[in-house]
Write a structure and sequence with these properties.
Blueprint: E1 3-7, E2 10-12, E3 18-25, E4 33-39, E5 45-51, E6 58-60, E7 68-73, E8 78-83, E9 92-99, E10 115-116, E11 120-124
Parallel strand pairs: 2-11
Antiparallel strand pairs: 1-3, 3-8, 4-5, 4-9, 5-6, 7-8, 9-10, 9-11
Length: 126
C-alpha cells in the first residue's frame, strides 16, 4: 500500500521555525515529483513548494519564497519542508503529495498529484 505520512507540525510563535517531514511507504520517493500544499480554514488548497525528480527543479509560491526550503532525504525516503520566519498567515494544514509525472519545472497543480498524506497542522500564533 502506497502511503505518505506527514509529521513535524505544531504551534510556533511568529518568527519561529518548523521542519515538516513526509515519509513514504510502499514506494520510493526519488522517482516522483513531490509537492507541499496547505489549506487554511475557510480557504482553498494552496500549492507551497515542489521538487522535481532527481532534484532537477524546485519551485516556491511567492508567499513563502526565501523562507521555506524543500529537500529530499533519499536514504530515509522522506521529503522535508524547512520553514523559517513563520507568519500567522502560514497557519494551515500542510499536506505532502507525490506525482508520477515528470516536469522540466515542477508544478503545483493538485490534479497532477496522485498520492497525498493526511496532513499536519501548523499554527503560528503568539
Amino acid at each position: 500500500q502506497l502511503q505518505l505520512v506527514e509529521s513535524g507540525g505544531g504551534l510556533v510563535q511568529p518568527g519561529g521555525s518548523l521542519t515538516l517531514s513526509c515519509a513514504a511507504s510502499g514506494f520510493t520517493l526519488d522517482h516522483y515529483t513531490l509537492g507541499w500544499f496547505r489549506q487554511a480554514p475557510g480557504k482553498g488548497r494552496e500549492g507551497v513548494s515542489c521538487i522535481g525528480v532527481s532534484d532537477t527543479s524546485t519551485y516556491y509560491a511567492d508567499s513563502v519564497k526565501d523562507r521555506f526550503t524543500v529537500s529530499r532525504d533519499n536514504a530515509k525516503n522522506t521529503v522535508l519542508l524547512q520553514m523559517v520566519s513563520l507568519k500567522p498567515e502560514d497557519t494551515a494544514v500542510y499536506y505532502c503529495a507525490a506525482s508520477e509525472l515528470r516536469f522540466r519545472q515542477c508544478q503545483l497543480t493538485p490534479t497532477a498529484y496522485s498520492y497525498w498524506g493526511q496532513g499536519t497542522q501548523v499554527t503560528v500564533s503568539s
